Fold this sequence. Notes:
By secondary structure, the protein is an alpha+beta fold. The protein has 2 helices and 2 strands. It has helices at residues 17-35, 53-72, and strands spanning 39-43, 48-52. A two-stranded antiparallel sheet has the order 1-2. A hairpin with a 4-residue loop joins strand 1 and strand 2. The longest helix has 20 residues, at 53-72.
Amino acid sequence: MSQNKTTRPKSGFSLSPRIVIGVVLAALALWFVLINTRTARIHFWIPWAEAPMWFVLAATFAAGAATTLLLGRRKK
């Protein structure tokens, strides 16, 4: 006698370690940005500017993420 085993399709949401690590890093970066509220003096080659530290950190994080996305895509 053979039993008719029914297999259920995978339901739910599966998280890859890459997504989990990315979300954790983004959350840590957001936390770090939000706790740094002082003003920072940014020196360029000749001029300088002042901006809130949270803005400088958020802009740096965004530039790094954009660079990673742009350099990470390679044609096969």
